[in-house]
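Same chain as my last thread, 510 residues:
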Amino acid sequence: MSLKNLTNPEKNVVEFEFSADKETFEVAVAKVFKKKAAQINVPGFRKGKAPRSIIEKMYGKGVFYEDAVNEILPDAYESAIKDCGLEFVSMPEFDIVSIDDNGVVFKARVYTKPEVEIKDYKGIEATKKPVSVNDDDINAEIEQKRLQASRLIDITDRAVQSGDTVDIDYEGSVDGVPFDGGKAEHQSLVIGSGSFIPGFEDQIIGKNIGDEFDINVTFPTEYHANELAGKAAVFKIKLHGIKFNEMPEVDDEFAKDNGFDTLDEYKADIKARITDRREKEADADVDEEIVAALIEKLEGDIPEPMFAAEAENMLRDYDNRLRMQGLDLNTYFKYTGMTLDSMRAQFKPQAERQVRTRLALEKIAEVEKLEATAEEIAEEYDRIAKAYNMEAEKVKELVDEKGIAADMKVKKAFDLVKANAKITAKKAAAKKTTTKKAETAEDKPAAEKKTAAKKTTTAKKTETPAEEKKTTVKKTATAKKSETAEKKPAAKKATTAKKAATKKDEGDKA
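reply #2:
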């Protein structure tokens, strides 16, 4: 393997030639012949028994060249980039300069890591929002726990009250004519949940099991079914059952059920957990401010392929997470209506941010001469092993130590910037506190899927991959053993090999 003719045709781009010698190429051709011979029919020979020279005479000297090129290209390219001493940030484009019995000469074009500058990264100003936890916050979490521990019990000795869950049949009509979707049997409905159109649930209050009655309502003027919007309707109702959601009392016994001796201890734990969560959220917001400032201070021309490569990495990561859940991208696209291109577009802003952030922090690490020690790298391997429930030695096989060290240097750079930042506390804004009722699956009756008595609700926006929480500084180290085929260079124009060989054959024959 040899490297030659390295040039810089444009900024952050290099082109160079590299070759595989005669011996290496011959070994590759012989290997391909051994694989392919059994599939080739030659008159006068049993299948798979024809000599290589006969096959080459019959089909041309370059019959095995294309596959041989693809066989040797990955190793030849890897050897060449080591000799270059440059850091590449895109997949290469290949061409074949020449190919014959003496070997093959390739040409590669690839983008290199850009030179960047960053100044005034110490003393960045950021504000941290105040963290407080009040009784309403604590009580809201307790209410959720009560709701989770609640049980529905049958009521037979009283009429319907607000908060009860009723079992009803209903059939709706407008001007005496039933309408589509206006009928259901044994529909479960929480009175007071606001699941049905205004006025519907209130008219069930006070009714008893076995009662049959009419409910008169008017559909909202902006109802999703245009033919019903603003129309007066009558629903015939039959009440089959009443259930009451019995929730535990908030006392020491309730605290014991949740792992504490007293209610005061339980409330103190809730307060500590909420405080810790909000502190982390406030710190994360500060990190975001610092990162945004670093990006603004970064100077340098960053090649577009860096952003595209990062978006592809994010796409693969998302696909892997889907597969861990038993899904894949095609299934995701089917249910969300997205496409590969639209998902790439969603990832692009986040990919650009990740690339710029890492370049800034890598430059700071270089300027500050930050390094990861052997002990720190060992600790990081142990941390990853515990996080994924794997043996540390197995992690070392999968994750490149250089990648670990690079990630740790980036983290140290961010810690340095944050330690030198001017972080001030943001004043708390006065606001009214309202307690929002905890909502569970039981609060959402099945009738929400029917168009009749249900009020219009706005569908929750599907969270797209690009809207996921952004990571601040760390990027997962490159797996050494799990390199996929698409990451390995392939002979993009390897067919030139066969064409070149054919032309040479024709010249020999002439």
